[in-house]
Amino acid sequence: MSAALQVTAFGLALLSTLFLLLATCTDCWMVNADDSLEVSHKCRGLWRECVTNMQDGVRTCDQYDSILADHPVKIVVTRTLMITADLLAGLALATLVLGLDCIKFLKEDPCVKLKMCYGAGVILCAGSILGLIGSMWYAVDVYVERAMLVSHNIFLGVHYDFGWSCWLGMAGSMGCFVASVLLTCCLY
User: Fold this and answer.
1) Do 40 and 53 contact (CB within 8 A), yes or no?
2) 13-42, pLDDT tens digit by residue?
3) Higher pLDDT residue, 14 or 159?
4) Per the database entry, which stretches of residues form a coiled coil (predicted)?
5) Do the domain assignments include residue 51?
6) In a domain, 82, yes or no
7) Is residue 150 part of a domain?
8) Number of domains present in the structure of the chain
């Protein structure tokens, strides 16, 4: 039972970590259409902003000035939290691989392997919380930005939605959290 639970937690952690990495690297955190005719589709992300012309499919992207330039707080905080979550999830995966029962590393001491799995679960939990905070921070800021435009009657046909990168970050964080629960609560 323990080995099956470890492998299940490892698979979930691996998939969720890939989701977190993909969310951090991609640039579709906030989606808006400039007009009601849906002529263009704009994705804003952590690293650049891309506009896709819906008629001919041409996509152009503008890089942000510099990583050290002044950026909105939501971008800086989300970048920091997501990169930290990615690093913690990667460290947890490396620790978990060494702690799996099916790996021959430290085979003679199962207590140490169990502690490694438990430690990987704790690290994974910390990474998942940071990733969830980063994703939710960005999503709440997008919602507040849209609500401010609507409340001031500056709507002008601009429509904001959460992009697929934001949803991927939330899904990856929740998957890492579930894997950490499996590793910390269910192995004993």
Assistant:
1) yes
2) 999 999 999 999 988 888 875 555 567 778
3) 14
4) none
5) no
6) yes
7) yes
8) 1
